[in-house]
Amino acid sequence: MKRFLFFLILSLILPVAGTLAASAAPAPQRYIPSLIRISDDAAIAALEEDGAKVWHRRGDIIIAFLPDEPATATGAMTGSQHNGSVPSAIRRARRLPGVEHIERSRRLSPSLDTARSHFAAEDVLIGKGFPQPYTGKGVVVGLVDIGFDPLHVNFLADDGTPRVRRFVTINDTLALKNVMTTREEFEAVRTDDPDEWHATHVAGIMAGGYKDNGFNGIASDAEIVACTSLLYDAGILAGIEEIVGYARSQGKRCVVNLSLAGYIGPHDGTSLCDQYLAMLGEEAFICLATGNAGDTYNALSQTFTEQHPTARVRIHCSDWMQFDMTGATDIWSVDSTPLRARILVYDEYTREVVYASSEQDASIDFLYRIESGSDPEFAHYYDGWIELEGWERDRENGRCHLLLQYDAHTGIRVPGKQWARYNIALEVTGPAGSGVQMFADGQSSRFVGFPGWPGPHAALSVSDMAAADRVIAVGMYNSRALLPVIDGSFREASFAPMTVSKYTGFGTFVNGRTVPHTVAPGGAIVSSTSGPFVEAHPEAVASMCARSEVNGTTCYWDSNSGTSMSTPYVAGFLATWLEADPMLEYDDVMRIILATNRHDYPDPENPRHGQGWFDPRAGLQAVVEQAGLTGLWPSANNGPRLEYRDGSLTIWNPARQECRLDLYTPAGLLLATYTTTAPAADFPIPATISGLMIAALTTPATIQTMKIGIKSK
User: Fold this and answer.
1) Among 41, 73, 104, which residue terminates a domain?
2) Cα(525)–Cα(559) distance, rounded to whole angstroms?
3) Which of helix, strand or coil describes residue 223?
4) Confidence of residue 79 (pLDDT cuts 50, 70, 90)
């Protein structure tokens, strides 16, 4: 059975363990997860005085949670611009001095044995052809996801102690956070949600360490930080801050996995979320999924001409019957040209437009709303509301921006059929030479072509986050044809192995950047599944792939497919690269990925291949070769300099300065220390040392560092 993981989670409201009051207590205060650009530090105090919670800040962007209050309308909003409602927390916050821009958080969706055999990837983990095995030792790996089991044997050391150093649960809509660091705390909570398993599976691919059944992950010796949330932008970014903060406190490099996707956004890297993500990318290597919508029509792009100045598209919900329409559509001009738009209702039976709103012109900001309670004509087709908001210019990119949101329901069927007769549709108009890009949310809604008009496409059905700077966007290829079943049989995976998946998200953004940056195995990957999930859903056991009894606990492994699976595969191998060379930077890693990506795959013209297939062994080889520097370390003004030749380090010190030479492992373990004031001094490398070593030369004026690759004796 195909199971693709960017599934919709519409009804999920997770309490953080121990934080909700008893049912008799008043309902807890709810919050709107938001990202806010400020120009004045006083804005933070003003927001907090108004009841907001501010958690993190990078540059002039803050992660904030605004108190959620229902707006009480004092005037009708149907068929007219919104004039009379009591200001919401967001509208109030916009008026505060120093608040420049508020971006309400989107909600994202969650998107090995055989995989490790591709392109000699296992050589990295066993050290074949390398100075040593590389398993992520000394590196922190983290994820923000949902459904984590911190006590699965995949995340325990050989002595049974947790490799999970920090488990953080975040409730985005209650602005609550629970940080756990001990086994006792893990045992008390067990999981963030017993009905979810996604994080456990993803973490097992990235860093699972249980090797007895062959389904271990990649960075099996890395330290793990797991964060879970309701997967709003703000909660996701706050979770990454927790991972980065832990790694910083330990003086270690870190890799963050985001097996998540959201399709609302400008897809140009300018959203506040993407800008904040890029700043986090200065401290962490962030691997994120392109999404599983590569065969879904979530996007429409059109250049306006004199003959065709208008774009039209129908909107369908995730349910093929189309009775319950909830979701959002994001509309962006390709430049600064204002757009005009109308809301339509299309009759599937008569194939004609039966309702059209007045045209809204985004040359000025507006909020336009239709409600069945006050619009009898609209009520003839739907019960509910549709809202269209427009901004002449988005502050971050200068593009005209419209946002359509809807919660409308119908019980009217096509005569003789089982599906809804009516579709919500959108019409957007602009001057010749300009153009529009539209994006369905990809979770609760998608696009369908409007008869007689250019149709939607899949060429930009990629997560908006993939457009951010300093991220590594990952697609997927299929990795196996048969899957083991717990009863000893096998089932077909329904994939052609070693072919790119038609589901992998792809696209070229308006800035010319093409994703995926790399494509990795994600079709039918076996990894750990959450113990509390199995307890809550015992009917799922029969279809699982494996189980093991470990110290009286039964643990399970299952197979799943998607870019949710390919992304942690890349993240785990990046941890091994950082073990080999902890001084790698983003530009180094991206250059190595692109230089070593493979292109010997079928149908090379398929754009889902992105910039090539990930080759972890070739990548590590490039890392080791880059790290194994030899020769003289440059030094100005005839100061001391360091040379490595033939297994020996030499300090050249013509001025006879006081010099100290420290030798470290990449993880920071001090191996040896030497001091000298001689004009030249040789220090043989101990025979017990192999692999990458860091040599630090300290003089009265400078500290110089050299990376040295030592081959096994």
Assistant:
1) 104
2) 5
3) strand
4) very low
